Structures are given as structure tokens and as C-alpha cells.
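User: Need the bound-state model for 2-phosphoglycolic acid:
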Amino acid sequence: MKYIIGNWKMNGSIEELQRRIEILETVKTDHRVIICPPFTMLNVKSDRIELGAQDISMHDHGSYTGEVSGQMIAQTGAKYVIVGHSERRKYHNETNEMVRAKAEQAIANGLIPIICIGETVEEKNAGKTAEIIERDLRGSMPTDVKSEIMVAYEPRWAIGTGVIPTITDIGNAHKLIADILESIGLGGTAILYGGSVNAENGPDIMATPNVDGALIGTSFLKMETFVPIIESVE
Ligand code: PGA
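Assistant: Bound-state model below.
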């Protein structure tokens, strides 16, 4: 079983989400399909498709205009929350410390955080991929994890670009993440790959050791490109 997660970013509508859920409920698969729509759509219900938020406040409650707390997300029925997506890190200057605080808020409210990490193109070209993965993974990891979490490796240069690392590089990155997680007592944590996944590259990426699923942006924009990923993965 793999996790196939659609990150809808700032797109869609409630009607369109309902339509997508109807389509996805008819797809025969053993994989876990999860949709992460904007906050305002999180209380749409489905028996088979799970929902997750795209962000969470690092605060519990209070005077933080525009923010949405872990408790509020949990009340919608959503089960997951993406934290530290590269677009949050880039456009909202989120640091590892903030991502860690967000992941801790998720856990405190019974949500499963999907903790995103990944190097920039400059870091990749400087040969620093492994160093950045380790720094961001350790820096973003909540302390004293006792419930389920997920990690998403998303090389920033692969997001929305149509370019992906080689399968060998994906395998190496995921092995490094798995080893670090193991060393801190979190072996078995699901590790997702994200960045330009489509129906052509999806099967090879997901057959790579230590790849437990995919976080998908562009290919989720249309059901014509998302459903074939679900159907193509072993
Ligand atoms: P992409 O986005 O599939 O368009 O590369 C992935 C993501 O942003 O999580």
C-alpha cells in the first residue's frame, strides 16, 4: 500500500472537490488516496478518500489573525496536515523551528503531520543535498514523537518544473531519511516523494526502496492526470 496525496494548493471549489471525490471513490485501488484542499473545503465528507490541510498555525489559540489552529483542523474531520511545504518556506519564510512547532501542534491535536524537506537547486549544485536533508529533517522533527508522522522529500527544484532527480538519487535521499529516522527511533515512518510526479514516472519512483508514496501538485490539477497515477502504481 502506498500513499497518493493530492496537494491542491490554492485551487478548486467545494463543488469540484465533491466531484473529484465521487470519481476517486470509483477507482479500484489498494492505495491510500488523500486530498489536501484549502481550509474552507476540509469538512467535505467521504468514506474512502481522506483529507488533510495544507498548513497549520504553530500557536494553540489566540490573537493570530488569519491563522487556523490544529484543533480547528481536527474538528473538520481532516486527518493529516502538510507542514513546511517549500512554498510556505519560500513565501512565508518558515524556518525549521516553525515547521517543528507546527508539527507539534498537529500531533497535539491528533493530526498526522506530513513534514516536507528538500534542497534548493543551488544547494544541489553545491553538492549539499545530503547535508540539507539531514539538517532540515532533524531541525523540523518534533520532539518526543509517539504517534504517526510522515516525511515528504521534495527537492525544491523538482516542484512544478517537470524535472525529477534520477531514480538513484531519489533512492539515496530516501535511504538517508530512513536511516536518520531509524536512528532516532522512528523507523517505519512513511517517506513520500514529491516533485513533478506523473503517470509516466510514478511507477518507477514508487517502486524505489523507502518510497512509501507521493505528494502530487500539478498532476492533481486534473483528474485525467491524477487517476492514471493511482492506477499505474503497483
Ligand atoms: P508538483 O508539486 O507535483 O507540481 O511538482 C508537488 C508539491 O508541491 O507538493
